[in-house]
Amino acid sequence: MAELTLEKPYLVINGETRDVSTPHWPLNPLELLEILGVEAGRVVMEINGAVVRRQNWSSHAIQPGDKIEVVNVVGGG
Fold first, then answer.
1. Residue 44's domain is classified under what CATH number?
2. Is pLDDT of 60 > 60?
3. Cis, peptide link before residue 29, omega less than 30° from 0
4. What pLDDT does residue 69 have?
5. What pLDDT is attached to residue 44?
6. Contact at 8 Å (CB) between 38 and 76?
7. Which residues of 45-73 are buried (b: 16+ CB within 10 A; e: fewer)?
8. Residue 43 lies in a domain
9. Does residue 55 lie in a domain region?
10. How sure is the predictor about 35, in pLDDT bands with cuts at 50, 70 and 90?
C-alpha cells in the first residue's frame, strides 16, 4: 500500500523554500508581506519571474509553490 504524505504549502521566497501557514489560499502580495512582517513601503515584488505592479497586489493570486522575490528599494545618491 502506498504511503500517504501531506505536504505543507510552501513558497520560494528570495531563493529560500519556506513553509507558509495560512488558513486560506490563494494569498495576495499584501497578505504575504503581512505574514512575513515586511512593510509594503518601498517594496517591489516579482512572482514567478514577472514584476507585479503595486496596483495589482490586492487582486494577484499567490499559489503554493510560487517563486517570489521581495526587494526593498533603497534610495541614495
1. 3.10.20.30
2. yes
3. no
4. 98
5. 96
6. no
7. bebeeeebeeeebeebebeeebebebeee
8. yes
9. yes
10. very high
Domain hosting 30: range is 10-72
Q: Which amino acid is at 64?
A: P
Domain count for the chain:
1
Burial class of residue 27, CB neighbours in 10 A (0-12, 13-18, 19+): buried
> What mean pLDDT is predicted for residues 58-72?
96
Query: Where would I find the H helices in the chain?
Result: 29-36
Residues in the chain: 77
Exposure string over 31-40, b if 16+ CB within 10 A, otherwise e: ebbeebeeee
pTM, 2 dp: 0.84
Over range 16-45, report the average pLDDT.
92
